[in-house]
Write a structure and sequence with these properties.
The complex is a heterodimer of chains A (453) and B (332).
Chain A lengths: L2 E4 L9 E7 L6 E2 L4 E6 L4 E5 L4 E6 L5 E5 L3 E6 L42 E5 H15 L3 E5 L15 H5 L4 E3 L4 H13 L3 E5 L10 H9 L1 H4 L9 E5 L15 H5 L5 E3 L4 H13 L4 E5 L7 E5 L12 E4 L4 E5 L3 H13 L5 E5 L2 E3 L3 H11 L2 E5 L7 H13 L8 E4 L9 H7 L3 H12 L9
Parallel strand pairs in A: 10-11, 10-12, 12-13, 13-15, 14-15, 18-19, 18-21, 21-22
Antiparallel strand pairs in A: 1-8, 2-4, 2-7, 3-6, 4-5, 6-8, 9-16, 14-20, 17-19
Chain B lengths: L14 H26 L14 H9 L6 E3 L5 H6 L4 H8 L33 H15 L5 E6 L6 H12 L4 E7 L2 E2 L2 E2 H4 L16 E5 L3 H16 L5 E6 L17 H10 L2 H11 L5 H24 L17
Classes of the chains: A alpha/beta (453), B alpha/beta (332).
Bound molecules: thiamine diphosphate and magnesium ion.
């Protein structure tokens, strides 16, 4: 039996790829380990290697094919003494096996939003928006530099800094050894003296190696020096669960950093958020933690063309207006909340979805105003419930909007366990649209609430 | 104190031992190839770091291990587990995230453990295994059980500050540990010349008085001899020892690797002329230890073992939903 060479999954988040070119032709002898073809994903170009010896039989997907789903047969490899099957047909990607079930859920297109139509916009991925924010600010201010692991020659582990080394050179795009504690301390020291470092953590999980400098050096020095020394620094990188990378690589640090006076903490969802918040962070005179999300990097949104477009901290955004229940979320959970709102809409419940954007300072005013309208609030947090942002929101809403509440402020959080690897358990551990919808239904007491039923 | 590569011609073990080394390396190679295939099919997800090319390192070290010894490494851990005697079925089932995996599907490729085999992980945070490893050494010393902790770390991990805190304590308290630096020349996409000052990582313990040797990690017999020296030193109570194994990974850092940071020629040169398995196979045939048919038979047996592991790993069920909440703390 000839072996089918399938479109491989090359990264935790890959669903499809482009078959850029074939490196071997039909009839070529193949040794295990030989590169057969070049595959492009949104993150990288990689070679597909043969895992067996044999002869390249038939090529089923031609070069330069876009959007080939994972697991599509690309070619047949003939083993010793085999000849190609007669009726092999060129397969198009659409007839391929469906890709394996994907967890967490693939995002659906963003629901219509209530934001005031900005002037001119362009479509952009979160990844490119982050890169543009850094590039524009680096052009504007020669004191801004980027430092971290694989940010330069490798173009960023998640390709956020693509092209920056070419434009700004190794003096300002600095590849470090794997020494988070060391380079974070270095960056804080440079910031004390007035430079404006952007520290990239390959993922925020590794910021734990450096958290002493983020808190004890960056967050506290201004206060301890009686205002003499400030620390204009940005800590950024992907935060939270990605896809199946296990407990040590899947942690949400929202409440960790938002807990600390002396820091500002933002968590963009859309590409516009990413650009506007990161630019504000770089211009800010104080330390700012920018919590990005790997699963959002490849998603496309509208971004204002204006090079001075910035989003001030402490301003939440109503991304979907509604009158029956307020759903508060940030980062990737905004999409989960929007998907829940779609489910609820079909049942006659209009949810107002608020994208928090900024965790510290927290825009409690927008939340209170929303609760005054809906009388119910559900916060969706990817992280753990204990001492989380959702708990803080519940406390502040009770303090400031008690009389408007028709139900207790409610939380939908990540399960109170380290994130498991297994596919089914991972899905159960993270907030999903149906769990959010269920929480919203509960606070709406549909059977005795004519307003929402 | 640091020495050049291969200070002594490695001793040649008896034929049965040579065959055992060969089987052990081949098992890792075939297992990893299968894991790569299952990843491509979407049956393994997340991060998956293959050990292909580096098999001689853990195989040669384990050849000299005593039953009391313990082992700890990074996320590139499948080979270490197999070499420590863990069941390929349980390892593969953990890679697929199933109930019969060593961590019952909750750990995944980077986080696997076996108390029974004194294999302490499987750690996803670069460098973290090093102080944990000297803790294992501390426990060996505390109990006086004669064991040595084998602590594996990459060339990139060597730059983490906690490694030096560990060197200092290990030397200060003469802990029975061997630091095995697997220098595969790259930390992800960063060549060691771009991340490490000074060129000999085996010399990084010199200031603490820790002896270090640089070894040809593509030759399992050199590794085995070095392991004998280092483990004897640590076991005798003389303190820690550093072995810098010069090795190479034939595959990408993880499954997602743009392969732009090293040339194809470099990779083929290493694959074609420095494959540790080819090299031992050559020794086996040169010495007449085994013939072609014998080698084919070994190959068949190992392929069957790996195929059985892959089948087991696909047939094993997903963990039950209730498993989400167990094992967070000790259950009463
Ligand atoms: C503290 C920390 N920082 C960064 C990473 C991301 N990362 C994973 S492996 C790796 C490279 C490690 O290289 P090396 O120590 O040489 O080991 P190798 O992968 O070559 O076996 C990096 C940067 C991590 N897992 N932990
Ligand atoms: Mg390395």
């Amino acid at each position: 039996m000839p072996i089918e060479i399938l479109m491989p999954a090359l990264s935790p988040t890959m669903r499809e790829g482009r078959l850029a070119r074939w490196l071997k032709a039909e009839g070529d002898a193949i040794k295990s380990g030989d590169a057969l073809a070049e595959i492009e994903t949104d993150k990288a170009t990689m070679e597909l290697e043969s895992v067996e010896d044999g002869i390249l039989g038939r090529i089923l997907v031609p070069a330069e094919t876009d959007g080939v789903p994972v697991n599509t047969p690309l070619a047949l490899l003939l083993l010793e003494g085999e000849s190609p099957p007669a009726a092999a047909q060129t397969q198009t990607p659409t007839t391929a096996n469906p890709p394996p079930p994907v967890i967490p859920t693939a995002p659906s297109p963003p629901a219509p939003t209530a934001r005031a139509a900005p002037t001119a916009t362009h479509r952009q991925t979160v990844r490119d928006a982050l890169r543009d924010a850094m590039a524009e600010e680096m052009r504007r201010d020669p004191d801004v530099f980027l430092i971290g692991e694989e940010v330069g020659q490798y173009q960023g582990a998640y390709k956020i800094s693509q092209g920056l080394l070419d434009e700004f050179g190794p003096k300002r795009i600095i590849d470090t050894p794997i020494t988070e504690m060391g380079f974070t301390g270095l960056a804080c020291g440079a910031a004390f003296s007035g430079l404006k470092p952007i520290v990239e953590f390959m993922t925020f999980n590794f910021s734990l190696q450096a958290i002493d400098h983020i808190l004890n050096s960056a967050a506290k020095t201004r206060y301890m020096s009686g205002g003499q020394l400030s620390c204009p620094i940005v800590f950024r990188g992907p935060n939270g669960a990605a896809a199946r990378v296990g407990a040590q690589h899947s942690q949400d640090f929202s409440s960790w950093y938002a807990h600390c006076p002396g820091l500002k903490v933002v968590a963009p969802w859309s590409a516009a958020d990413a650009k506007g918040l990161l630019k504000s962070a770089i211009r800010d005179p104080d330390p700012v933690v920018v919590l990005e999300n790997e699963l959002l990097y490849g998603q496309t949104f509208d971004v204002p063309d204006d090079p001075d477009f910035v989003i001030p901290f402490g301003q939440a955004e109503i991304v979907r207006p509604g009158s029956h229940v307020t759903l508060v979320a940030w980062s990737r959970m905004v999409q989960v909340a929007l998907d829940a709102a779609q489910i609820l809409k079909a049942e006659g419940i209009e949810a107002e979805v608020i994208n928090l954007r900024s965790l510290r300072p927290l825009d409690i005013g927008t939340l209170v105003a929303s609760v005054q309208k809906t009388n119910r609030i559900v916060t969706v947090e990817e992280g753990w419930p204990v001492a989380g942002i959702a708990a803080e929101i519940a406390a502040q809403i009770v303090e400031q909007a008690f009389d408007w509440l028709d139900a207790p402020p409610t939380r939908v959080c990540g399960a109170d366990v380290p994130l498991p690897y297994a596919a089914t358990l991972e899905r159960l551990a993270l907030p999903q649209p149906d769990t959010v919808a269920a929480a919203a239904r509960a606070v709406c007491y549909r059977h005795n609430d004519g307003g929402a039923a | 104190m640091a020495a050049k590569i291969d200070p002594a011609t490695p001793a040649t073990p008896p034929p049965q031992e040579l065959l055992r080394l060969y089987r052990s390396m081949l098992l890792i190679r075939r297992f990893e190839e299968k894991a790569g295939q299952l990843y491509g099919m979407g049956l393994i997800n997340g991060f998956c770091h293959l050990y292909i090319g580096q098999e001689a390192v853990v195989t040669g070290m384990q050849a000299m291990a005593e039953p009391a010894d313990s082992c700890i490494t990074s996320y590139r851990d499948h080979g270490h587990m197999l070499a420590c005697g863990l069941d390929p079925k349980g390892v593969m089932a953990e890679l697929t995230g199933r109930a019969d995996g060593y961590s019952r599907g909750k750990g995944g490729s980077m986080h696997m453990f076996s108390r029974e085999h004194r294999f302490y992980g499987g750690h996803g945070i670069v460098g973290a295994q090093v102080p944990l490893g000297i803790g294992l050494g501390f426990a060996h010393q505390y109990r006086g059980d004669g064991g040595v902790a084998h602590i594996y770390l990459g060339d990139g991990a060597v730059n983490q500050g906690q490694v030096y805190e560990s060197f200092n304590m290990a030397a200060l308290w003469k802990l029975p540990v061997v630091f095995v630096i697997e220098n595969n020349l790259y930390a992800m996409g960063t060549a060691s010349a771009r991340h490490a000052a000074g060129d000999e990582l085996c010399a990084r313990g010199a200031a603490y008085g820790i002896p270090g040797e640089r070894i040809d990690g593509m030759n399992v017999l050199s590794v085995r001899s070095a392991a004998a020296r280092a483990l004897a030193y640590a076991r005798a109570g003389a303190g820690p020892f550093i072995l810098e194994m010069m090795t190479y990974r034939f595959r990408g850092h993880s499954m997602s690797d743009p392969a732009k940071y090293r040339s194809k020629e470099e990779v083929s040169e290493m694959r074609d002329h420095h494959d540790p398995i080819d090299r031992l196979r050559q020794t086996l045939t040169d010495r007449g230890v085994i013939d072609e048919a014998g080698l084919k038979e070994i190959d068949r047996t190992i392929k069957a073992c790996v195929a059985a592991a892959a089948e087991f790993a696909q047939a094993s069920p997903e963990p039950a939903a209730s498993e989400l909440w167990t094992d967070v703390l000790t259950e009463a």
